[in-house]
Amino acid sequence: MPVWDYYKTHPEAAENLTKAMAGVSGAVIEGITEHYDFSPYKTLVDIGGGNGALMFGVLRASPNSEGIVFDEPYIIEQTKLNIPENLKNRCSVAGGSFFESLPKDADLYMTKWVLHDWNDEQVLQIFDTCFKSMKSGSKLLIIESVLPDEINSPHAGKLLDINIFAMTKGKERTVSEFKNLVERAGLRYNRLILTNTELSSIIECEKP
C-alpha cells in the first residue's frame, strides 16, 4: 500500500515518523527563522505542519503573528496537545487534505519537506489548493532541499532524492523545476533564499 495509507492505519508508526521529522526539523528551524523575516505577516498557515515544530519556532521569532498548523486529522489531534502553553493564544490547528482545501486568506502559507513526497501533477494540485485559498499578495514559502540546476554539482539533497523516490515516488527538485511548477499554478516566483543548510532552502512565491 502507499506509505501514507500505511501510516493512517498504523498510528504508532505514524507517531514515530512525526517524532523523527521533529528531530530533524530541530536542526534547521533556527536557520529558517534567521534567514526569513516572518514579522510582517499577521496570519500564517503551515501546510502539512506535522507536530507543529516549525510553526512554534516561527511564532517565537515573530511575537505578533498568529498561526494555524494544518495536516491530516489523525495527526492534528496530537499536534493540538503539543502546543506550548505560551503559544496557545496564538496557535491553532486545522485538519483536512491539502489536495482539497486550506484555511483561507492567510497572509503567509508555508510548507516544509512536504512537496518532495509527491510527483509534479500532485504538486500542481497542492499549488491549486493554495492559489484558491490565498488572497492577492499572500506569500507561499516552499521550504525544501532545493537542488542546483547544474546537474553535476554536489548537494546533500541528492541523497534525499534517492530516499524519497524509494519511499513515495516523489523527488527533490531544482530551482528551475520549482519555478516552472509555481508559474504553471498561476503564482509568481519571487526569490530563492539559502539558509545555513542545503536541507532547507526557501523559495518565496506570491499570489498576484
Physical arrangement of strands within the biggest beta sheet: 3-2-1-4-5-7-6
Please state the CA-atom Rg, rounded to the nearest Å: 16 Å
Helical residue percent band: 40-55%
Biggest β-sheet strands, sense, barrel: 7 strands, mixed
Strand content: 15-25%
| Low-confidence runs | none
The named CATH superfamily? Vaccinia Virus protein VP39
Distance between the termini: 39 Å
**CATH level-two architecture:** 3-Layer(aba) Sandwich
* Tally of DSSP helical segments: 8
Number of strands: 7
- The succession of helices and strands, N to C, reads HHHEHEHEEHEHHEE
For the residues shown, what is the average pLDDT?
A: 92
Q: What is the count of distinct domains?
A: 1
CATH topology: Rossmann fold
Can you offer a commentary on this structure?
This protein is of the alpha/beta class and 208 residues long. The protein has one domain: 3-Layer(aba) Sandwich (Rossmann fold). It has helices spanning 3-9, 11-25, 29-35, 53-61, 73-82, 120-133, 157-168, 175-184; strands spanning 43-47, 66-71, 91-95, 108-112, 139-144, 188-193, 201-206. Helix 1 crosses helix 2 (11-25) and helix 3 runs parallel beside helix 4. The longest helix has 15 residues, at 11-25. It is globular.
List its traits.
208 residues; alpha/beta; Rossmann fold; 7-stranded mixed sheet; 8 helices; 7 strands
Summarize the structure.
By secondary structure, this protein is of the alpha/beta class. The chain is built from 8 helices and 7 strands.
Give the arrangement of secondary structure elements:
Layout: H1 3-9, H2 11-25, H3 29-35, E1 43-47, H4 53-61, E2 66-71, H5 73-82, E3 91-95, E4 108-112, H6 120-133, E5 139-144, H7 157-168, H8 175-184, E6 188-193, E7 201-206
Parallel strand pairs: 1-2, 1-4, 2-3, 4-5
Antiparallel strand pairs: 5-7, 6-7
